[in-house]
Design brief:
Layout lengths: L3 E7 L3 E7 L5 E7 L4 H15 L4 H6 L1 E7 L2 H7 L6 E6 L5 H4 L24 E4 L2 E2 L5 E3 L3 H13 L4 E5 L8 H13 L4 E4 H4 L5 H31 L5 E5 L5 E3 H6 L7 H17 L4 E6 L4 E7 L2 E2 L1 E2 L2 E3 L2 E3 L3 E2 L2 E3 L5 E5 L5 E7 L18 H7 L17 H16 L3 H22 L12 E5 L3 H12 L3 E4 L6 H8 L2 E12 L5 H19 L8 E11 L6 E5 L8 H19 L8 E12 L20 E9 L2 E9 L8 E3 L2 E5 L2 E5 L3 E5 L5 E5 L4
Parallel strand pairs: 1-4, 4-11, 5-6, 5-9, 9-10, 13-23, 23-24, 30-32
Antiparallel strand pairs: 1-2, 2-3, 7-8, 11-12, 13-14, 14-15, 14-20, 16-19, 17-18, 21-22, 24-35, 25-28, 26-27, 26-28, 29-30, 31-34, 32-33, 34-35
Helix pairs in contact: 3-8, 5-6, 10-15, 11-12, 11-13, 12-13, 13-14
Amino acid sequence: MNKWSLGIDVGGTFTDIVLTDGAGALHTTKTPSTKDQSDGVLNGIGKIAEQVGETAESLLSDCGIVVHGTTVATNALLEYRGAKVGLLTTDGFRDELEFRRSYKESTFNPRLEAPEAICPRRMRVGIPERVSKAAEVLIPLDEDAVRKAVSFLKEEGVQAIAVCYLFSFISPEHERRTAEIINEMAPEIYVTLSCDVLPEIREYERVSTTVVNAYVGPLIQSYVSHLEKKLRAKDFVGELFIMQSNGGMLTAEETGKQAVGTLLSGPAGGVTATGWVGEMAGYNDLMIVDMGGTSYDISVIQNLTPVMTTESWLARYRIALPMLDIHTVGAGGGSIAWIDDGGALRVGPESAGSYPGPACYGRGGTRPTTTDVNLILGLLNPDFFLGGEMTLDLEASREAVRVHVADPLGLSVDEAAQAISEIVNNNMANASHLVTTRRGLDPRDFALVAAGGAGALHAGRQAELLGISSVIVPATGPVFCALGDTVAHLKVSDARTYFASMEGIDLADLNARFDEMEKAARARLASQNVTQNFELRRSLDLRYEGEVHEVTVPLKTRTRRVTSLNIDATLRAFHDQHEKLFAHKDTAHPVELLTIRVDVLGLREPPRVNGADFGDEDASGAVKGTRPITFADGPHESTVYDGAKLQAGHFLSGPAAIESWGTTIIVCPGQEALIDAYGNCIIENGGHG
């Protein structure tokens, strides 16, 4: 057995590292992210190796697994710098990407520009072929047309080709033959088929997801291969896995084939970690908010199960794969405050990133950011950023706010800083409502988990704005996504269109289809050695006859075989869930099944963390002093605690600041905080907003 396991998460500003040794110890660190993400990864490994008295080589030679959350695919899509892509599709249907199912983000905005064309029209070629919904070949595949199209795309220098024919989710033979021809003519080109990426009904969703996979696929495949070579050169002998948007991890080889599954690779780690921490802390329903240097990510966990969605949009493209329901806004520590053409104060989504970073970093940044504002308001200690590894320049922050916000608006620097802070906090609260109230959930029913380097600075105020009574700041909050990488299970999600009425459904056929999907999913997990313990989860996409949107309902069975009793229970759950989401149910109305889903999980043993016995409540021994902190109701002289000296059982009252490596926890006036057995800080919001 290898001694070490590594979780590595690359964010827009910092690369986070969590190292576990299997004996209950967690070691954490941060290092600035780099243009080539693998450089930051290796820098972080070297840094944490030094912490535990090892070299990078000696640590990696005794490391069994590296799980990596990466933003390579996300950044490529958001910045529109992916591969040059061509599309082969059924003749007459090459404009599906433009039609977008008539979806427009701002319906009444005539100036809204079309999305950036990640596959321009001249790179989309119609191929004569046609299959019916009954899998009948109406028009045979024109192989000469395929060869001509491939020659054209090859001359145009495409790096990837997406293939998406009508009804290929029922009959994939034409797509498979097309891939063979491409591989014969241009083996260097990355090929992705819709029957592999998303074998489901609805053309736009399928072609959009497939084209996005082709757009980011070559970059992910190249990056993962590049990283693995660097790790092997440092004596790494274990297995490399990549965090997936569905909350699980997948082998590097499989990730290269379905790169679109990594679009939420980074924040997915935080959601995974939330369930693990929530279970230890005794909370089942949680809202995770992760605030880093660039973004603020929000997601919900009910009964320790993350909420999933198949309706994600990223960079204005539809991604219809099952993904964690994570909502992201540009409200990170590096988010820039600015004044728009109408004279209104705005914050984000533009970020200063690591370089030049906020003005207070002293790296050449001159525009005011959330971090600058937090420094001005006293939430941050300029001499204790990253545990003292960095010193912040308060005067640079004040000058940035004065020049860009205070003077133009006729405010003092302190007034401008407080205005910026309230805008940031309300932006985050509004975003939290999108994953709760918009889905029929009440945010007051959840405990708020504050993660990321900046999450704990704002969590107390978020609790006030949302009416949440409890906040959990994990001991590993500054590196929470990397922690999630260390506790993630292997996971393969698969789906198949299966259109049928739920009344009199053919159970023998349904079970046969489920068995086929399970075998295919298990085959994708076979090329790994970290587990042989698997768990099967199944679900159905159901809707009332005549509806156009489905509800995904878990199919709970005690046996592998689905029975009529299981179907009846699933129908009852569908009616209840439909009422919760849409305030309506009709148990007499016919129900249709559109899609069947399978998740196969390869279960890993989570890191063992040893809890401490509660000691005395008196936390006075950890007091460092006091400083003025400006809250929503004005400045308060606040007690400052050394987080490294706080122990299990210590109790303290706000207003207060707890300074720890990687983060500062702010306890607002009227709130109380307790350190639990695992070092987590539990904040109780007495006013509940």
